[in-house]
Specification:
Layout (H helix, E strand, L loop, with lengths): L9 E6 L6 H14 L4 E5 H5 L12 H17 L4 E5 L5 H11 L2 E8 L2 H11 L4 H21 L4 E4 L5 H11 L4
Parallel strand pairs: 1-3, 1-4, 2-3, 4-5
Amino acid sequence: MHADGTQGAQALLINGTVGVGKTTVAEAVGDLLADAGLPHAVLDLDWLRRSWPAPSGDRFNFEMLLRNLQSIAGNYLEAGATRLVLAGVVEHRNERKWLADAVGVGLTVCRLRAELPVVHQRLTHRHDGEPEALQWHLDRSAQLDGILGRAAVDDFTIDTTSRSVLDTAVSVIRAANWQ
């Protein structure tokens, strides 16, 4: 747990496969929280794990993510944030627990889902001119979607297939009871 000033603080992880819109929705949730006057921070967890090489046995550098998140979350909470909005991937129940321990406050997990052809379209747009990266992400999107479906680590799911980013963000906030 972090400093005493974190009473009532909460964290929300926006989970989902690559290309589903986690970071975009997290940013929109942050905008809505700012509009409502709620002190918060938005963190893309990919940046907290981004170093090379990843240790053997930790393909996606989850241990580094946890170490960095613990420090950064503590800083935001001590500065007065009452909501932490995280965009990232948690594939297993134990990873969810470790993430909750790292933030040191209650953690709710939202899974974003979209039909795979829509995810593939988004990825194709995002990785235009990057054929190797695009192929990796296309392959990973279906694989990760299956992993997340079996893992069932989420508290609720929001389908983003035909929703706008704003509508999705509003739905996430409502489902998390952060109104």
